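Teaching assistant here, posting this on the class forum so everyone can see the example we discussed in section. The complex has two components, and the goal was to see what a joint structure prediction looks like when all of them are supplied at once.
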Amino acid sequence: MSITTAFRAWILLLLVLLVYLASLYYANVEHGVEGATNGLFALVLPYFTQFRLVLLFIFVLQDVGTFSHRAVMRLKLDGLSGARLADHCLRQMTLRAVGFSAIFPVTILICYAFFAANFAAFTSFGVWLFTLKVWLNMACLMLVLSLVMAGLSQLLSRYTVMAMVVGYLVIDAKVAIMFKELPPVWVNFLLYQQVAHLEQEYLVWGSVGLVLLVLLAHLMILVVADIKLEQMISRAGRWPIMVLGTVMVVSLVFRPYDYFPADMILPKQTAVGLNTSRYLVINYWASWCGPCVAEMPQLAKLADTIEPSKAQVIALSQDKDPAATTKTLLQHPDWESKGIQFMAVPGSVRHHNAYLSLLEGQFEGVAIPFTLVTEGRQVRYYHVGFLPGSEIAVANWLRSNPNKQ
Amino acid sequence: MIQKPSGNLAINNLTYQYKKFRLGPIDFSLAGGELMIIVGNNGAGKSTLFRLLGGLMRPHGGEILIDGNLVPYLNEVVSLGLDQHYYDKNETVRHCLATTCKRNGVDIDTIIPMLQDFGLDAYLSNRVGTLSLGTAKKLTIISALSRQTGIYVLDEPNNGLDYEAVNVLYRYISRYQHAGKTILMSLHLTNGNEPVPNKVGLIRDGQMVVNDIDQANFGQADFSKMVSDFYSQTRV
């Protein structure tokens, strides 16, 4: 990708940010709940923060052009070959990955500024550190995917690669829905970066897998660059790979949501203390959010099956208008009887998306429904969005973890 | 990295197989300052040969020697001008040429006279994707000629160029020859104004016949006749 194309890509990113802000404004200020429940916004808004991920994948697909057959031809015609060629390509890809994934820190800061409800986040060193981590994490993810796709695109046409990726995602989603299962661990890891609930062994194997993936992708590039074996081992593309590996390992080991102050998200007047010996299963939802309403029966089932001494299920509504929550609850009398405690998100009287300013920057891909399990002040597990089987995974997690008592 | 530019090229038993198409075996050698013109139909193997010479593909047999040595990466010592330039279509001509010059350690100011001669200086701010066929071809030629190497390989450089630009091209080729550079170029058709080559390669279905030319007794008309004879044989 050339400088011009990169510039255009950033313009596109800024446009998306503008649309994002406009939709939030539209939902929050102009039309309130009724406005947000109508039309496209109700469909898109719950997943808008995850839209950044989609955007990044689009750039990864576009990035294939960087290392396409055509671009490599030009480099070779310019006299670049061997290690020089591989170094050049890797350096370009690294810079671009870092540049494009800057959308994450930017949107996180915009969320804090726009809602002005989380000044604490601005002064928290941990949150800034975490924002940085999200940035590096996404840059690594982009780079790995770019490498793999670029390698593939040397063998297959660019559109074949795109079709393969899209086909895979569709099939994966289909399988997940058919078997009411969560996607495999590594898909969860690669696509959603959700590692909070993974056990240590998964983290280790995940790191090993990722490093192998990077090495494989690197090998593809070295083959394309037509590098001799001894050069391959000694120097070609060494520094980007070292940086990449280090950042990946650090970002896996370093889990800042461990420092997430969980009491920040609970209403102050609530009787539910964080110092109880129980786990808290906290679910963010809204009456206008389709997936949230669809998830609620499953959450009710979870609350039914878990012993009260083990965990308490709390549903935090982020409706600005409490009447909307009440109305929805009245329509579904079965929810409340199952032992879920319904509350409002702190700050939701002022903003419909108060959850954003509370969670953005602490977790990757914040959107509702958002479910997290806390133990004391620590977050032990979370998942974003709703897939059939999400609550089974929560129940399994609770079952496999001993009661603190 | 680019070593001292040298123009001595020797090709021994070069072969390349692609499905049913077989190129070679090809043998010839060129000393510094020599010009070789290769003539052949579409699909005869000219471009394949040039890509092998430019290091874009690995030969399946035989060897390509520069000054008697095998070179690990031929594209570092051979300038290659193919049928297209492979630049990003969103970039400006100025950016493309600046990149090529930077990668080869050439000062961009030194190629400005060449741009003016070819008439490309008026297009410096245009995007590569908007250039016409002939202008894009000029960009291809200049990107190859701007590099400082011993051997220049040009694939059908006169294709799409106007009469004026073809003359400029041939003037540059003569100038490079005088500077001791070796030049290979392929042609479809003769215009009647080609410089007289030192060697002519007639290529048909992957088999190349190399004719040494005695330049004292060989004129432009003889070259045109040789080419037309070759094509008339092809038709029969």
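For the discussion questions: The longest strand of chain A covers residues 279-285. The CA atoms of residues 317 and 344 of chain A lie 5 Å apart. Think about how each of these relates to the inputs above.
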